[in-house]
Amino acid sequence: MARNGLFIFIAVGAVALFVAITSCLYTVRETENAIVIVLGDPQGVVTEAGLHAKLPWASVIKIDKRNLGYNLDRPMEITDVNQERLTVDAFARYHIVEPLKYYQSFSAAGRRDTQGLLDAGQDAIRRIMQNALRQTLGEVTINDIVTTQRAELMHRIATRMEQETRKFGVEIIDVKINRADYPEDIQQTVYNQMISARQEEAQLIRAEGRREATRIRAEAQRRRTEILATANRQALEIRGEAEATRNCIFAGAYDGLPTRISSVTENPKAPDQIGVDKTAGDSARVKCVITDPNAARDPGRAEFFAFYRSLQSYENALKRDNTTILLSPKSEFFQYFNNMEGKSK
Q1: Exposed site from 64, 95, 172, 199, fewest CB < 10 Å?
Q2: Phi-psi region for residue 146, left (φ > 0), alpha (ψ -120 to 50) or beta?
């Protein structure tokens, strides 16, 4: 019986010792800070990980020191500067940089355990985020929110939030807008308006394109006309020069005079020029020069040249079948037909 009593006494003592030891020791992980509370009074923050001792009647509150996140539980509706409604969903990343201030800020509301403090902190961040979203996004237009100033607006929201969260020891790392859209009850109306606006814009662009195409075609037609006119003028000049050269050659052959063809930049007809084609006008650049001003005209060559040109005229006039020519027999055209010696009258 005595042995049983001794065994019970030892067992009770071991349990009491174990309870005493466990109530005097606590552990701190790498991912958390600890606050030791003695009779409701915080004694300080333990930041070093490991096993630590405390008074048996002291309590320990653990506060996460990792980067934490908060997402709006549901999208909130805001009004932009033009009084247009918009539904916004956002989230924030934050870090508890002052655990003691964080505990003191929320413990007065009865949140004195780890999970209660976390919930209280996120409730405060939710209210601050909603106010910051309303204030910041209410100063700009929907277009600024969706496209042009999105990054700048998120930075401004984070700055406004941190001004408030620093009061309870929280640093805002980042704020992101997940989605910004029109409320469901007006989405279809807004989309129809956007479609109409884009269609109108497309019509304006097409009209501008047609106008520009007409201008380009007109310009191309003008350039074409100028190019053709220049080409025709140059062709006439070239033909005129060719005619002048031809006439100079014929003139020399007809009269039996020695001639030379040269090019000039100006074209007033000089006394020693013969056979310059008048169709070329002032643009003709051919000069027919008699190389020997004292040379005499050769009647025989002139007669042969006239006979040769007459043969060419006969060939051109009679080269087609069923050709009918009504001329007087005494016409100059038949001078070689009427003279068997082949001489003109």
Answers
A1: 199
A2: alpha
Amino acid at 125: I
Please say whether the dihedral angle defined by the alpha carbons of residues 217, 220, 224 and 230, taken in this order, is positive or negative. positive
Name 20's Cβ contacts closer than 8 Å, sequence gap at least 6.
56
- The predicted structure's pLDDT at residue 239: 87
Q: Where are the alpha helices (DSSP H) in 32-75?
A: none
Handedness of CA 113, 114, 117, 119 (dihedral sign): negative
Angle of helix 184-255 relative to helix 299-318, nearest 10 degrees? 140
Q: What are phi and psi of 162, to 5 degrees?
A: -65, -30
Whether the CB-CB separation of 264 and 285 falls below 8 Å is answered with yes
How far is the CA of 172 from the CAs of 53, 62, 74, 122, in angstroms?
Answer: 33, 20, 20, 12
> Domain-by-domain residue ranges, the chain?
22-63, 67-181, 309-345
Rounded-to-5 percentages of helix, strand, coil across the chain: 55, 20, 25
Assigned token pair, 345: 């009258």
What would the mean pLDDT of 159-165 be, rounded to a whole number? Answer: 92
CATH of 67-181, one of 2.60.40.10, 3.30.40.10, 3.20.20.190, 3.30.479.30: 3.30.479.30
Task: Count the Cβ atoms, other than its own, within 10 Å of residue 158.
Answer: 22
Q: Quote the CA–CA distance of 34 and 191 in Å, as a whole number.
A: 53
pLDDT 10s digits, 237-283: 888 888 888 878 777 777 777 777 777 654 444 444 444 443 334 44
257 or 19, greater pLDDT: 257
Q: CA 316, CA 320: separation in Å to the nearest integer?
A: 8
Alpha-helical segments (H) within 94-183: 99-107, 114-137, 142-143, 150-165
What is the distance between the alpha carbons of residues 305 and 307, in angstroms, rounded to a whole number?
Answer: 5
- Of 4-8, 163-167, 277-281, highest mean pLDDT: 163-167
